[in-house]
Amino acid sequence: MRIKAVSKNTGLSPRKVRLLIDMVRGKKVEDALNILKFAPTPQARVVAKAVKSAAANAENNYHLDPAELKVVTIYADEAQNMRRFRASARGRAARFKRRSSHITVIVAEQEA
């Protein structure tokens, strides 16, 4: 049985989040949380929160043992971008995007 958790509009760039997600994909939940705990980026806290949420959903809603859960699928999609302006040379304005992402985590029991 696959259990899902989604963290929406995180305020983190999907490109930066994907670096962390690639380290966690396919690992046990405990191992994934340990990897994220010692990752040197601030984005690791948000990804860890999404993984914990998926494990808690599995434990509370479906009475599964969290020690036997594995991160089956994890991905970051692009969310809505905020358009901002920054002062530029000669009295002009340069437009840039503040990117955001949706993080989706799917966990399932490990097969013996």
Q: Overview of this structure, please?
A:
- It is a single chain.
- This protein is an alpha+beta fold.
- The chain has one domain (2-109): Ribosomal protein L22/L17 (Ribosomal Protein L22, Chain A), CATH 3.90.470.10.
- It has helices at residues 14-24, 29-37, 43-62; strands at 2-7, 69-78, 82-87, 93-98, 101-109.
- It has a 3-stranded antiparallel sheet with strand order 1-5-2. A two-stranded antiparallel ribbon has the order 3-4.
- β3 (82-87) and β4 (93-98) form a beta hairpin.
- α2 (29-37) runs antiparallel to α3.
- The two termini are 14 Å apart.
- The mean pLDDT is 95.
**CATH topology tier name:** Ribosomal Protein L22, Chain A
Please identify, by name, the CATH architecture.
Alpha-Beta Complex
Distance, first to last CA: 14 Å
- Class derived from helix and strand content: alpha+beta
Radius of gyration: 17 Å
Outline, from the CA principal axes? elongated
Mean pLDDT: 95
Fold topology:
Elements: E1 2-7, H1 14-24, H2 29-37, H3 43-62, E2 69-78, E3 82-87, E4 93-98, E5 101-109
Helix pairs in contact: 2-3
Please provide a brief summary of the model.
The chain is of the alpha+beta class. 36% of the residues lie in helices and 33% in strands.
Characteristics:
two-stranded antiparallel ribbon, 112 residues, Ribosomal Protein L22, Chain A, 3-stranded antiparallel β-sheet, alpha+beta
